[in-house]
Write a structure and sequence with these properties.
It is a single chain. The protein is α/β, with parallel strands linked by helices and 236 residues long. Helices cover 33% and strands 32% of the residues. The chain has seven helices and 15 strands. The strands form four sheets. The protein has a five-stranded parallel beta sheet with strand order 2-1-3-4-5. A five-stranded antiparallel beta sheet has the order 10-9-8-12-11. Strands 13-14-15 form a three-stranded antiparallel beta sheet, with no helix packed on it. The longest helix is centred in the middle third of the chain and has 27 residues. The relative contact order is 0.09.
Length: 236
């Protein structure tokens, strides 16, 4: 997988270092390097990149301000000499935050994280488009259609898919990995042991989701996201 990227940094030495790092990293393709967000604005709106290395403190337009107007498909790794901007960077939904002077080891750690994020996003898009996934079950690969899932329950090292036709499929996979790959908000984690196919929810009783005789709990850790979904679909 190749990730297209660009650099915005008003310090020539810092920009040059990042350029050299991108050239050493086989899965990165550098599309441009700019010394101000203003100069980069037109190019990146017309030809967006997947990943942007973005300095926080710059004249005219800061990196934090620029991040708010980027195309949604562009992800950001902030770069700065000031650690106090880390929290603001994460609030801006950055993939990572690199503190100058940046070592290649730290750079590679961040870009590996980006590579994993884009690979996961690509799988989500594939599942959303094709409407099925292949899961390992009893030393075989079994097709599971997303539209046929009611809910998924974690059972120690396994997960169990409960299907609309009453069948179940067991697979050796973690709930976290499954939660990462399933498209949202169609599939939402309601509890550390449950993921629910939300369009299949017909009844909620005392903030538990009811599937026949089964009550799927909604725990405090996942309550806000689930409540938001229900609020968006509730007739006031």
């Amino acid at each position: 997988m190749i990730i297209t990227c660009a650099i915005i940094d008003d310090e020539p030495l810092a920009a040059g270092l990042l350029e050299s790092y991108t050239k050493r990293t086989p899965y990165l393709e550098l599309k441009g390097s700019y010394n101000s967000a203003i100069l980069a604005m037109k190019d990146l709106r017309e030809n967006p990149v997947q990943l942007l290395f973005l300095d926080v403190q710059m004249p005219e337009l800061s990196g934090l301000e620029f991040a708010k107007i980027l195309p949604k498909e562009t992800k950001v790794i902030f770069t700065t000499a000031f650690s106090q901007y880390a929290l603001e960077g994460y609030k801006a939904n950055a993939l990572d935050y690199l503190l100058k002077p940046i070592s290649y080891e730290d750079f590679l750690f961040s870009t590996d994280k980006a590579l994993e994020w884009f690979a996961m996003s690509m799988k989500q898009d594939t599942y959303r488009r094709d409407r099925f996934m292949m899961v390992k079950s009893d030393y075989k690969l079994q097709r599971v259609c997303l539209d046929d899932i009611l809910y998924i329950e974690g059972q120690k090292d396994y997960v169990c898919f409960f299907m609309k036709n009453g069948e179940t499929v067991m697979s050796l996979i973690s709930m976290k990995r499954l939660d990462d790959y399933l498209p949202k908000p169609e599939f939402l984690r309601t509890h550390r042991s449950y993921i629910v196919h939300m369009p299949e929810v017909l009844l909620v009783d005392r903030f538990r989701i009811v599937f026949g005789d089964v009550m799927v709990p909604i725990s405090e850790n996942y309550k806000e996201e689930v409540q938001t979904y229900f609020d968006q679909h509730t007739l006031a």
